[in-house]
Amino acid sequence: MAKKAQSVPRREKGLSRNRIIEASIELLDSSGEGGLTFRALSERLATGPGAIYWHIASKSELLIAACDAIVARTMNAPVATNKREATPQAIIRSLALGMFDAIDAHPWVGSALIRAELQSPMVRIVERIGQQVRALGVPDEQQWEAVSALFSYILGVGGKNAANGQLARTRGIDRSEFLEAMSHVWLQLDPQEYPFVRSAAGQLRAHDDRMDFLAGINLILKGIESSRRR
Amino acid sequence: MAKKAQSVPRREKGLSRNRIIEASIELLDSSGEGGLTFRALSERLATGPGAIYWHIASKSELLIAACDAIVARTMNAPVATNKREATPQAIIRSLALGMFDAIDAHPWVGSALIRAELQSPMVRIVERIGQQVRALGVPDEQQWEAVSALFSYILGVGGKNAANGQLARTRGIDRSEFLEAMSHVWLQLDPQEYPFVRSAAGQLRAHDDRMDFLAGINLILKGIESSRRR
DNA sequence: ACCTGAACACCGTTCAAGT
DNA sequence: ACCTGAACACCGTTCAAGT
Questions:
Q1: Alpha-carbon Rg of chain B, whole angstroms?
Q2: Residue B6 has what pLDDT?
Q3: Is 0.90 topped by the overall pTM?
């Protein structure tokens, strides 16, 4: 009968790079970094562990590919800014927050991103930010430094959040409980040796990761601005 | 300092948390993150894998303890600044570079640091930087944001360098070869979609990680300064 | 071309048994 | 109190064999 007359949704049974990546994302989301194993994955795909190797070279490649899929979605999503003032700064803030939220939703992306250095996920992020840094009027020789700083900062916060997510999962602990406990530990420190950390213990309990993240982006943006002005 | 008159250096044969940590550092330095296994470690310590568990709860605790030992040394080292102008900014730069160099020498510290969130290694770094941010005259409510931004940035660059080190080890590839190859890949990208990355490919080949890192620290410091002035 | 699944060479961790 | 080492329950990866 008609072979391509209508949208026969690619036979469910055939394995493909894409199906493998989608299944990996589901697995990573539902059971964390440790949840992605070739055995669990092949069970979910109703196949043998060896079959996956026909489509993907290694676990590390698989993790980066899954990370890249999330980053691609995030960087291609329409930028959520007020049209009235879609300044480069506002767009950069929005892109950065997009990554923050993506990592918040998929904590494993944070650590995968770090391992994917200079590969596709980084390229996507750097490109989007880079264009806005240009639009900011930063001179050519300073653009790389500016983009690199923003990217590294996002990477750092992302990695931290990935660790948080991992910790929350393994210890089955609530984030605010954990902050409470940590704040208590900090208050216990020797006041001679740790005056700053002790005094910051209160803010630790109250702080909002997302707002702190944004504040850091704003500091870097201000730094870029005041460098440019000179 | 010397607490007691040159005591006998704790009998070589007895296991101890410290000896285990030192052996772990050697193993991590010589064969990377993957090189730290309880089997390799117990062989080096001439004991069984189970023995280590008497002194340390888990591999993750071991990794963080090893990381903390390096961070402690780094943060306690005398700050290398020109006495004449030991401004808070200069001290922060020096502390940050100290961490950069430590991670450069021990790439595994980068990824361990990320996993150690809010624990001892972070506390040491945050304290040292925090004191200088205070000395900068940043108002109380803004201190945490400033320190947090600096720390996250250091974490991000550190994580990236850890990945580099790992990559260099597994692929047995030289850093500059790798940058060369990556720069070539970037030049191949679609100019419509990736104008910025393409134009940055040249700088990628030429760039100096350490200088880029310092430039980022300076951007954040400038941002802090201009926030304060407002 | 694509898939199967047993087998290999590892892991971290536990625990009865020793000293 | 501290150590031993076999055993358990996993891993990623390979590969002859199938379709």
A1: 21
A2: 30
A3: yes
